[in-house]
Write a structure and sequence with these properties.
Layout lengths: L2 H5 E2 L7 E11 L14 H9 L5 E2 L4 E2 L3 E9 L5 H15 L5 E6 L4 H5 L8 E5 L19 H9 L4 E4 L6 H10 L2 E3 L1 H6 L2 H10 L4 E6 L21 H11 L4 E7 L9 H22 L1
Parallel strand pairs: 2-5, 2-6, 6-11, 7-8, 7-10, 8-9, 10-11
Antiparallel strand pairs: 1-5, 3-4
Helix pairs in contact: 2-10, 8-9, 9-10
């Protein structure tokens, strides 16, 4: 029996015929939440949004209508952070494919500690997030959505990491970011218009890239339904202008995290569905061009 069979519950929410356009895994976990719980409900919410938006991408000449999505379903429920990270890492290791993108639907941002670490060490990590998540611990826990990136750096270093859109952080996190020499595209950089070009330069340096999109990178006006909302964020257009730049590289995996359906008015869910659709279309385009 594979780890995928052991640790997931099959889903039929995403379907279609033919060669899979992407492999999907849901991780309904939010046990280390620090403000508004509920992002454990997001995986199926994002699937439903994806199923109810238009999925023809004129930019890439790709129509996802009717294409297969290899949906593995959701990870079995657990409230134990270490167990979740272990299971995710094992399942994503089996999901990985040189041609088909792996997309994980969270769940809280701790999910990324399991997903990204399933990829080779030289895989670039681009994190879109209002927060740096570099605390040594939060509420007494080392494994937390507020410390996942620090755990990654402790194991792999920071040479392949780019953080995008940070605007809310503790002094401890800034000190650690400077000490670790993490590449950063600030919220101010994005507002000045240099985000896409900086991101493109980073992607060129790597053969493979993994993307983590924390939905709170967006201003709450665009995505109100998140666990830890922060005002004065980026717009949806600014986010997608950078996502499109990532299409110029080899995106092998991605996650969409911290969306909270309990506080969403539909705006955040629609954007999460569009991110899922866009990343998939970019991957299909890259395979055929």
């Amino acid at each position: 029996m594979s780890y995928t069979q052991l640790y997931t519950n099959p889903s039929t929410l995403l379907s279609g015929d033919g060669e899979p356009a992407a492999t999907i895994l849901g991780v309904p976990f939010d046990s280390t939440h620090s403000y508004r719980p509920g992002c454990r409900f997001a995986p199926n919410y994002i699937r439903e949004m994806f199923n109810n938006i238009e999925v023809f991408h004129s930019r890439f000449g790709v129509d996802l209508e009717g294409m297969a999505m290899n949906d593995l379903g959701n990870l079995v429920q657990t409230v134990d952070a270490a167990d979740m990270v272990k299971m995710v890492r094992l399942v994503v290791s089996e999901m990985r494919d040189d041609n088909i993108i792996s997309i994980i639907l969270g769940g809280e941002h701790l999910v990324t500690l399991g997903t990204y670490m399933a990829f080779p060490q030289d895989t670039a990590l681009v994190v879109f997030d209002a927060h740096y998540d570099l605390r040594d611990q939060y509420a007494g826990a080392k494994l937390s959505h507020a410390s996942f990136l620090r755990r990654i750096i402790e194991e792999r270093g920071s040479s392949h990491i780019l953080h995008v859109g940070g605007r809310a952080y503790a002094a401890e996190e800034i000190a650690y970011a400077q000490e670790s020499d993490i590449r950063i595209i600030t919220d101010a950089d994005i507002q000045k218009g240099s985000g896409p070009s900086q991101l493109a330069e980073f992607v060129k340096l790597h053969d493979a890239t993994y993307i983590s999109v924390d939905m709170d990178v967006l201003d709450p006006a665009f995505c109100p339904g998140v666990g830890n909302p922060e005002g004065c964020g980026i717009t949806s257009k600014e986010l997608f202008s950078m996502i499109y730049e990532l299409g110029k590289g080899n995106v092998v995996g991605a996650d969409i995290v911290e969306l909270n359906p309990l506080f969403d008015n539909g705006a955040g869910g629609t954007l999460a569905g569009k991110i899922l659709s866009t990343l998939t279309a970019m991957n299909v385009y890259g395979r055929v061009k």
